[in-house]
């Protein structure tokens, strides 16, 4: 199965200025995930959807698998749905059926994890599933904002390890086909998705400066994602 990786990268970022090219362990942040994709044999091409000449120039000069898909004006800005950007990318590759989408904000993802996710995707397609997305498992007591318990009975103080797990969509990876995307009304998570677990340390997603510091510290502690 041929898999194309989609990595959206806009020039502007709100919470962390110039996030995609901010130095991370000595390189621009986006190098980490693209380097991992570059070393993942199951990935045949890395499509960077961007509106930034600087990102495009650095990416194409550094990585052989990269192809730039320029973001049109109507898809530029901070409030554009990611699914609309994915739809544009899918239409740009009419001959391709299967895609993996990830983000520059997941710099700790490993080649082994991506390979395992692709293999899992191929397996679950033989069953009743149509897509795969990355999740993180939590065994904790959760509450709504009004203090109403979500996953436990406060009157029964059972051990957290005995609670039913709750899974967070960690935005690390999505595997889907054109068929599942369109059947789900242009959504990367299909109508029958499979939850693919990624451990908490590897699944760190950079939303703000504190996440950036945490991810860089972990990267220095555990080494390159390669």
What does this 3D model show about the protein?
This protein is of the alpha/beta class and 226 residues long. It has a single domain, classed as Spore Coat Polysaccharide Biosynthesis Protein SpsA, Chain A (Alpha-Beta Complex), CATH 3.90.550. Helix content is 29%, strand content 23%. The longest helix is centred in the middle third of the chain and has 15 residues. The chain is globular and about 60 Å long. The two termini are 23 Å apart. The mean pLDDT is 93.
Tags for this entry?
globular; 226 residues; two-stranded antiparallel sheet; alpha/beta; Spore Coat Polysaccharide Biosynthesis Protein SpsA, Chain A; 9 strands; 7-stranded mixed beta sheet
Distance between the termini: 23 Å
Q: How confident is the prediction overall: mean pLDDT?
A: 93
- For the record, the CATH class is Alpha Beta
Shape: globular
Number of domains: 1
Order of SSEs? EEEHEHEHEHEEHEH
Briefly characterize the structure.
The protein has 226 residues and is of the alpha/beta class.
Secondary structure elements and pairings:
Blueprint: E1 3-9, E2 23-24, E3 27-28, H1 29-38, E4 43-50, H2 53-62, E5 66-70, H3 82-92, E6 98-101, H4 111-125, E7 131-138, E8 166-177, H5 178-183, E9 193-197, H6 209-222
Parallel strand pairs: 1-4, 1-6, 4-5, 7-9
Antiparallel strand pairs: 2-3, 6-8, 7-8
């Amino acid at each position: 199965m041929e898999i194309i990786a989609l990595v959206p990268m806009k020039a502007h970022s709100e919470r962390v200025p110039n996030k995609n090219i901010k130095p991370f362990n000595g390189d621009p942040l986006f190098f980490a995930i693209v380097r991992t994709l570059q070393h993942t044999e199951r990935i045949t091409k890395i499509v960077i959807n961007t509106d930034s000449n600087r990102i495009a120039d650095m990416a194409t000069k550094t990585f052989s698998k990269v192809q730039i898909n320029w973001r049109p004006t109507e898809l530029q800005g901070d409030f554009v749905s990611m699914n609309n950007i994915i739809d544009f990318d899918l239409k740009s590759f009419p001959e391709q059926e299967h895609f993996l989408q990830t983000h520059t904000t997941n710099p700790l993802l490993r080649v082994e994890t991506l390979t395992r996710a692709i293999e899992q995707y191929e397996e679950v397609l033989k069953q009743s599933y149509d897509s795969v997305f990355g999740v993180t498992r939590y065994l904790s007591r959760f509450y709504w904002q009004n203090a109403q318990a979500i996953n436990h009975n406060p009157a029964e103080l059972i051990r957290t390890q005995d609670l039913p797990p709750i899974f967070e969509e960690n935005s690390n990876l999505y595997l889907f086909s054109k068929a599942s995307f369109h059947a789900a009304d242009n959504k990367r998570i299909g109508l029958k998705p499979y939850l693919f677990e990624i451990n908490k340390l590897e699944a760190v997603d950079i939303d703000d400066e504190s996440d950036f510091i945490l991810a860089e510290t972990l990267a220095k502690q555990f080494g390159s994602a390669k």
